[in-house]
């Protein structure tokens, strides 16, 4: 009987469990809070990404109409507009400059890869810096800024 009594003495009594449940609940709420903050930040970044895609689509659509003027005077219009890298970059940049920045987007710009593909298709690449709404400063300090880069294509046909 003596080993059983020793074992019983080692087991925690019910009165010793008080306070441990509070720690578990606090840990649960801490994890739950991190999940909520993370979900809100990821959703905000995805929404900002969609708005950057919309801006890139608008810039590509405008750039597809930006015919290279030198080719218009020498070769005429033809069935498709002839684009140049310079005209696509200029019109895409001007279109982005006119657009209002979406929420949580700190800035955006037309980046390398923007130009005229085969002199027919306007390809616009836009890179944006997104600031998460909750604890964005802490996240930026720890992990750096969130960069979103999107690409859009557009082609104009002459009818």
TrEMBL record:
Transmembrane segments annotated in the record for this chain: 21-40
Superkingdom assignment: Bacteria
Organism annotation: Flexivirga oryzae
Entry keyword set: Membrane, Transmembrane, Transmembrane helix
Official protein name in the record: Uncharacterized protein
Taxon lineage: Bacteria, Bacillati, Actinomycetota, Actinomycetes, Micrococcales
